[in-house]
Each structure stands twice: as C-alpha cells, then as structure tokens.
Specification:
It is a single chain. Helices cover about 35% and strands about 20% of the residues. It is built from 2 helices and 3 strands. It has a 3-stranded antiparallel beta sheet with strand order 1-2-3, with helices on one face. A hairpin with a 4-residue loop joins strand 1 and strand 2. The protein is globular, with a radius of gyration of 12 Å.
C-alpha cells in the first residue's frame, strides 16, 4: 500500500501550463506531494515547498518573480 499523497490531475495540468506560459521546459521540473501536506517543486535553478492548498497560485507567482530562473551575476 502506497501512503504517498498524489497531486490532483487538474493541479498537474495547471503546473504544466504555468511552466509553458512562462517559457520554461516542463521536463526540467518535477513536482511531488509529501505526507505532511506539502507540495515540493524542483527546477534546474531552485526548489520550493508549498502548502498543498493553493500551491499553484504561489508557484505561478514565484515563476513570475523569477525564483526558478538562472541567476545572472
């Protein structure tokens, strides 16, 4: 029996749409839920953990703010 929570399909679709609309490559990112009620997003230039409620809105905001973009020094 697998106790790992799953992310609803509609939220996975929103995750992919947000990545595509922001110009990112979907294959460069991963998303997973944990038993504590959090969603973790990993990208090539950052990782973020969100509360499972409304996580896609926070993720979209972070994409817009450049949190997952490569740092330019």
């Amino acid at each position: 029996m697998n106790n790992t929570p799953s992310i609803p399909k509609s939220e996975e679709q929103m995750f992919r749409a947000l990545l595509l609309l922001s110009g990112h490559t979907v294959a460069d990112f991963s998303v997973e839920a944990d038993p504590a009620g959090h969603v973790r997003v990993r990208g090539p230039h950052g990782t973020a953990t969100y509360a499972s409620r409304n996580w896609t809105a926070q993720f979209g905001k972070h994409l817009y703010e450049g949190l997952f973009d490569e740092l330019v020094v």
